[in-house]
Amino acid sequence: MPRTLAGALAALLALTGVVSCGEPTTPDADPAGSVRALVNEAGRHWHVEFTPLASPADAVRRADLIVTGTLVDVTEGITVERPDGADGDVWATFEVRVERVLSGEAPAQAVIHVAVGKDVAVTADRLAALNPQAKAVMVLADRSGWEPDADVRVTRPAGIPATAPLFMAYTDGMWLQGPKDDRMYAIQTEPADLPPPWSAPTTVEQFAERITAAGS
After folding, report:
1. In whole angstroms, how far apart are CA 6 and each of 52, 67, 92?
2. How far apart are CA 82 and CA 154, in angstroms?
3. What is the pTM of this model?
4. Which regions of 22-179 does DSSP assign to beta strands (E)?
5. What is the per-residue pLDDT for 59?
6. What's the pLDDT at 20?
């Protein structure tokens, strides 16, 4: 059933629609291998339209924080409760151990929390089982106090402290790469879709290098 994400989030991440149906069938991943199964499962049955990050400089300008690190876990996400009882958007939390800060102020926590939309049929535990401890580069916005509307309630899961920042990633600003991957993967987009000013990065390290050069 088609759903439209709330305006405040749509403006931030340029997501305009989500379609969800059916059961996931992706086979389990090799824990020491590729992240491809995880991103396929996370994006299953989603249709996303977004405005790309135009360049590395555009990413630096728009982001509150850009980091590299390791995706150490996937856990339950925020819940969104609407007054009419309609289903809210469904989320997981990507827990990322920060290794380098490429832009923005270094977070106080060694592990940051990133809210990631997902299909209702795909559990956080399922995504966690598919995680090969992937390397990550993330272009993030701080959405700690996000409330899409005054009468919509957003509740953090117990695993995210009330004082910890809660981030969301730009659609083409969250890239993952497993130990056996020779390229990076994202949910809903491909490296070839990045605009020409990005100079065609294909790995997490290359994407990070473009960001570093833009910020210097």
Report:
1. 19, 26, 17
2. 9
3. 0.85
4. 65-76, 79-81, 91-104, 111-117, 135-142, 153-155, 166-177
5. 98
6. 36
Determine the residue type at 181: D
- What's the average model confidence in pLDDT over 73-94? 83
Is residue 22 in some structural domain?
A: yes
Alpha-carbon gap, residue 72 to 90, rounded angstroms: 21
Where does residue 56 fall: left (phi above 0), alpha (psi -120 to 50 degrees), or beta otherwise? alpha
Q: Give me the number of domains the chain comprises.
A: 1
* Cα distance between residue 6 and residue 149, in whole Å: 8
pLDDT higher than threshold 50 for residue 67? yes
> 91 is written with which tokens?
């989320």
Looking at residue 173, its amino acid is G
The answer as to whether 208 is a domain residue is yes
Residue 53 lies in a domain: yes
Task: Tell me the two tokens of residue 99.
Answer: 């290794």
Q: Provide the domain limits for residue 100.
A: 7-215
Q: Is residue 33 assigned to a domain?
A: yes
